[in-house]
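RECORD TYPE: protein structure
NAME: tRNA1(Val) (Adenine(37)-N6)-methyltransferase
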Amino acid sequence: MTVATGVAETVDAFHRGRFYLVQPKGRGHRAGMDAMLLAALVDHAGPFRLADLGAGAGAAGLAVAARLAEAEVTLVERSAEMLAYAAKSLALPENAAIAPRVDLVEADVTLTGRARVAAGLADDSFHHVIMNPPFNDGRDRRTPDSLRAEAHAMTGGLFEAWIRTAGAIMVPGGQLSLIARPESVAEIIDACGRRFGGVEITPVYPRGGENAVRILVTAIKGSRARLAFRSPLLMHDDPESHAFSAGVDDLNNGRRAYPRKG
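PREDICTED:
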């Protein structure tokens, strides 16, 4: 795993300095609020294993490892370049407490059967699977940065393929967590199918009176519970301020989880 030569990097603090992330500057997908909200969906007492599918530089998976001391995290990413940034993050002295609990797997999330197992993603191995799949469709303006385009470009059947993999590598009763655009809700529910039940969906709104910009989704492997829409999250209480609401700020900085209701 090697990073591209001549690319500027940043070392960014998350969770108020509880972990640090090496990221390319002006290239690839840069982690932010989405990754932190995704990580907040994981709430688990005791030891557990988590896979972060399409992990990029590893922000969401590292956020889980930083908040939950007994989490064993596997970052799964097909881009060797982005996985190399995750490796650089794990080598930082500031991440010494979490690095021993994080593994890296270079693999395409859409692999199936023996190819997936050979890549290091065995069946029934993880208690939690998290994902922040590419979210742009063909009508969105494409970025000239190929690495960023790969991270953002949606292809047909994407949720079906990624959720199929999540179902295969997760133990019965394990939790799937993802963040996506609201327009993907029907495809996500369809992809969960009979693999996952107890789907809980939380819309995320910038402010009251505005349209949702994201949805947070959790589901349980093998559950037959019904779908539920939860109360929305408002990112900003004050219509004139860009400051996060207290609850969202806590989620963004790893001070609390956003547990399931069911």
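COMMENT: The helical segments are 33-40, 59-67, 80-90, 113-118, 146-152, 158-169, 185-192, 246-252.
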